[in-house]
């Protein structure tokens, strides 16, 4: 009988490009039904990674208060630096995320004066542009200003519902609308100080080497050797089709205190990979991140 195969144990790389931990909780029946594609989580993962953090877990949930609350309790217990909820901040009865947040944290929902002012201001603007007929506040619009006790609203210059930020036992929880334009505007324009505090000034970068083979097994031993030789860099290979060609795309990523320190980690890795792979007769060329 042949010897039993014992795979090489991969190195523990949790300390590499990870940085502060983030979890994303997306609520929306329409996503789980397949009616809407969840582009928000993908965008948030890219943004967190670029800031030098890592998304440790993502979840997609139904619009159910206890389901949201239960997952948030578990998330808080894992003590990430940041939890982001997506969706469920609107004026309708199925927008239940803030009720789930309040339940998870053992807090009440309260009408927040600043949030109410923000909502009223937005609907006055909508009416002035003839996007809505009535500029006045009603209970459905006021619902978007009911926040978990102790939370603060975040300016949403695109839509009606403010984002919401609450701190709980050392964990920052940010709730964002599910409309992509609104979500991105709040992250880009209203969360700068929060993100700076959580992620600091660390630099994250990646390099890409495209390998002219569709046989990942042909280079697996090289990747393992380079990983071992460069333990501070995260290396990942992924098969990919470019036009009619099947290739492998190797990404080397690192997080450090500044851009120069990241370059000092990544440049030798790409050089090492290129030299070793091309020595086997397989061509390589630089690729673009993303």
Descriptive account of the structure:
- The chain is an alpha/beta fold and 290 residues long.
- Helix content is 37%, strand content 26%.
- It contains ten helices and twelve strands.
- It has helices at residues 29-32, 39-50, 65-77, 97-105, 113-128, 139-143, 180-190, 192-199, 220-229, 259-278, and strands spanning 21-27, 54-61, 82-86, 109-111, 146-148, 152-154, 163-168, 171-176, 203-211, 234-242, 245-256, 284-287.
- It has a six-stranded mixed sheet with strand order 2-1-3-8-7-6, sandwiched between helices.
- A hairpin with an 8-residue loop joins strand 6 and strand 7 (163-168).
- Helix 3 (65-77) packs across helix 4 (97-105).
- The longest helix is centred in the last third of the chain and has 20 residues, at 259-278.
- The radius of gyration is 23 Å and the shape is elongated.
- The mean pLDDT is 92.
Q: Which characteristics define this entry?
A:
Alpha-Beta Plaits; 290 residues; 10 helices; Molybdenum Cofactor Biosythetic Enzyme, Chain A; 26% strand; 37% helix; 4-stranded antiparallel beta sheet; alpha/beta; 2 domains
Q: Which secondary structure elements does this structure contain, and how are they paired or packed?
A:
Elements: E1 21-27, H1 29-32, H2 39-50, E2 54-61, H3 65-77, E3 82-86, H4 97-105, E4 109-111, H5 113-128, H6 139-143, E5 146-148, E6 152-154, E7 163-168, E8 171-176, H7 180-190, H8 192-199, E9 203-211, H9 220-229, E10 234-242, E11 245-256, H10 259-278, E12 284-287
Parallel strand pairs: 1-2, 1-3, 3-8
Antiparallel strand pairs: 4-5, 6-7, 7-8, 9-11, 9-12, 10-11
Helix pairs in contact: 3-4
């Amino acid at each position: 009988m042949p010897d039993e195969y014992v795979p090489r144990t991969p190195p523990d790389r949790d300390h590499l490009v990870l940085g502060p931990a983030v979890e994303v909780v997306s609520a929306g029946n329409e996503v789980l039904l397949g009616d809407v594609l969840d582009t928000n989580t993908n965008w948030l993962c890219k943004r967190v990674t670029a800031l030098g953090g890592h998304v440790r877990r993502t979840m997609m949930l139904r619009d159910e208060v206890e389901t949201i609350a239960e997952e948030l309790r578990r998330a808080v217990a894992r003590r990430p630096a940041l939890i982001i909820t997506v969706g469920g901040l609107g004026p309708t009865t199925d927008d239940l995320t803030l009720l789930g947040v309040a339940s998870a944290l053992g807090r009440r929902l309260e009408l927040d004066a600043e949030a109410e002012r923000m909502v009223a201001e937005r609907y006055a603007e909508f009416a002035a542009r003839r996007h809505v007929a009535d500029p006045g506040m009603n209970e459905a619009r006021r619902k978007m200003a009911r926040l978990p006790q102790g939370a603060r609203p975040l300016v949403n210059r695109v839509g009606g519902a403010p984002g919401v930020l609450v701190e709980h036992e050392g964990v920052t929880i940010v709730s964002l609308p599910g409309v992509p334009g609104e979500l991105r505007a709040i992250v880009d324009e209203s969360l700068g100080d929060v993100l700076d505090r959580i992620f600091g000034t660390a630099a994250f970068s990646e390099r890409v080497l495209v390998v002219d083979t569709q046989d990942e097994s042909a280079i697996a031993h090289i990747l393992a050797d380079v990983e071992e030789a460069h333990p501070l860099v995260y290396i990942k290979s992924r098969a990919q089709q470019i036009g009619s060609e099947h290739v492998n795309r190797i990404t080397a990523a690192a997080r450090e205190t500044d851009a120069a320190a990241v370059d000092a980690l990544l440049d030798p890795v790409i050089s090492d990979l290129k030299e070793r792979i091309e020595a086997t007769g397989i061509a390589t060329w630089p690729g673009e991140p993303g």
